[in-house]
Amino acid sequence: MAMAAPTIVLAAIAGAHGIKGEVRLKLFTDALDNITRHARFDVGGRVIAVQTVRPDKPGMAIARLDGITDRNAAEALRGLQLAIPRAALPPLAEGEYYVADYIGRRVLDETGAPVGTVKSVENFGASEILDISRDAGGSVMVPFVADVVTETDDALVIDRVWLA
Questions:
Q1: How sure is the predictor about 3, in pLDDT bands with cuts at 50, 70 and 90?
Q2: 3-state secondary structure 125-141
Q3: Residue 158 scores a pLDDT above 90
Q4: Superfamily in which the 99-163 domain is placed by CATH
Q5: pLDDT recorded at residue 2
Q6: Residue 164: CB atoms within 10 Å
Q7: Domain ranges of the chain
Q8: % helix, strand, coil for the chain, step of 5
Q9: What pLDDT shows up at residue 164?
């Protein structure tokens, strides 16, 4: 039975690792303990426990999942995601946010005209960048900083200067 929505994806299964059922995980979280602190995950509509997890290359980990005992079973999970209920995430400190809370968010210009939706939040070093999928086609990237982006209850508002 799948966990109730909304869910947050913490990792995706990239394939099998070895012959004893371990899987390679592509992490969507900065800290491996974000995986280890959760006992169970929704994986392709079924709840699976993570028995062990250890670091691998940057952004990757190796995990043993409950009930997955051979390479074929592990390989069959390739592409599936490890998700948890949104309510299971720890509370945030002031100024922190979960990227997942912004994906799909509506974007308006300062006049209230629709611009598009947030496709992703990237970080190339200086600050977070919003990748916005425009309603009219194409996309635009803008810095996710207070001088550029204002947040309302139901949308993000961005000055048209940044949308050119």
A1: very low
A2: CCCEEEEEEECCCCEEE
A3: yes
A4: Photosynthetic Reaction Center, subunit H, domain 2 (3.90.50.10)
A5: 43
A6: 6
A7: 7-88, 99-163
A8: 10, 45, 45
A9: 81
